[in-house]
């Protein structure tokens, strides 16, 4: 059983295949108020974070290129200030697809060093057998960092920090320190089994470590913008971590016992969580295959 056989058409459309956007008029951008001056935009692709205030607009991720006009319209509905900065949480193009459009409008793009490297060279997302071409110059981050950077905008300190390889090798978390809001990118799929991109340096142990770290630095009042899924909080993130640890332990035990991928999938190691987490994106079989492959690397 090859891992590519686990991929349903819906998953391909959500994360990878651009033809789904041939009719972008069908996509609606929903605006969710997170805190004063902070919003989450939900459309197609990764959730977008917005900070709007007197210093301008700061975006976190930008979904797909055909949606840029709709994203700008949603931003204009909450602010009459220009979009000045854009941070990419990682390199996947459901989060960076609009980079070129915004870069051409002189929006300053910021990301971890590895995001620029991967966008510059392109690469294979092996699980989906999808070869991503190199990005245009305008789509590349012009400010990169190795560990962290802080932007002081709109009365807040936006601390952007890298975590060791997790969803990919270029993941960043954005912490609005005064507003008590965190954007986690694809370290957090709320209500969905997460995709861990082994071919982009991802690691299930890294995701667990990153979520553990974030839980230790937030409180019960923190609002969390996940990469995918609805607005969240600390209690829900703790359940996500519990699921990840349990799945990793059970799949890891089967790997240690020398079980094949087919045997591991047949054992249904995620059965206790499948009803909640395995219905809308990755199937339990897909998620098990990803974790199994990661632990065998």
Number of domains: 1
Q: Specify the overall morphology.
A: globular
Terminus-to-terminus distance: 17 Å
The fraction of residues in strands falls at 15-25%
Q: What does this entry look like structurally?
A:
The protein has a single domain, classed as Metallo-beta-lactamase, Chain A (4-Layer Sandwich). The chain is 32% helix and 23% strand. It contains ten helices and 15 strands. The strands form three sheets. The protein has a seven-stranded mixed β-sheet with strand order 1-2-3-4-5-6-9. A six-stranded mixed β-sheet has the order 10-11-12-13-14-15. The model is unreliable at 1-22 (pLDDT under 50).
In short:
The protein is α/β, with parallel strands linked by helices. The protein has 10 helices and 15 strands.
Which key terms come to mind for this protein?
single chain, 297 residues, alpha/beta, Metallo-beta-lactamase, Chain A, seven-stranded mixed sheet, six-stranded mixed sheet, 10 helices, 15 strands, globular
Question: What's the arrangement of secondary structure elements?
Answer:
Blueprint: H1 9-15, E1 30-35, E2 38-42, E3 48-53, E4 56-60, H2 68-76, E5 83-87, H3 93-96, H4 99-103, E6 108-112, H5 113-121, E7 123-125, E8 130-132, E9 143-145, E10 148-153, E11 156-162, E12 172-176, E13 181-183, H6 204-217, E14 223-225, E15 232-233, H7 234-256, H8 261-266, H9 274-277, H10 284-296
Parallel strand pairs: 4-5, 5-6, 6-9, 13-14
Antiparallel strand pairs: 1-2, 2-3, 3-4, 7-8, 10-11, 11-12, 12-13, 14-15
């Amino acid at each position: 059983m090859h891992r590519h056989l686990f991929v349903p058409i819906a998953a391909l459309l959500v994360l990878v295949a651009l033809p789904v956007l041939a009719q972008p008029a069908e996509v609606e951008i929903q605006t969710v108020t997170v805190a004063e001056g902070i919003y989450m935009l939900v459309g197609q692709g990764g959730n977008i974070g917005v900070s709007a205030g007197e210093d301008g607009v700061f975006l976190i991720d930008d979904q797909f290129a055909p949606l840029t006009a709709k994203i700008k319209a949603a931003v204009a509905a909450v602010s009459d200030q220009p979009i000045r900065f854009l941070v990419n949480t990682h390199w996947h193009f459901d989060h960076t697809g609009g980079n070129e459009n915004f870069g051409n409008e002189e929006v300053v793009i910021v990301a971890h060093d590895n995001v620029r490297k991967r966008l510059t060279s392109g690469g294979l997302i092996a699980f989906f057998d999808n070869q991503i071409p190199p990005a245009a110059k305008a789509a590349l981050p012009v400010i990169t960092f190795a560990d962290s950077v802080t932007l002081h905008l709109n009365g807040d300190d936006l601390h952007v920090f890298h975590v060791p390889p997790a969803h990919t090798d270029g993941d960043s978390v954005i912490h609005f320190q005064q507003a008590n809001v965190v954007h986690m990118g694809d370290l957090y799929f709320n209500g969905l089994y997460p995709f861990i991109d082994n071919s982009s340096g991802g690691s299930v142990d890294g995701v667990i470590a990153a979520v553990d770290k974030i839980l230790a630095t937030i409180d019960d009042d923190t609002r969390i913008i996940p990469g995918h899924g609805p607005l969240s909080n600390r209690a829900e993130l703790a359940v996500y971590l519990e699921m990840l640890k349990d799945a990793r332990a059970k799949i890891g035990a089967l790997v240690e016992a020398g079980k094949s991928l087919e045997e591991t999938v047949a054992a249904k190691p995620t059965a206790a969580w499948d009803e909640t987490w395995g219905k809308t994106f990755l199937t339990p079989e897909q998620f098990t295959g990803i974790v199994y492959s990661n632990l065998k690397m």
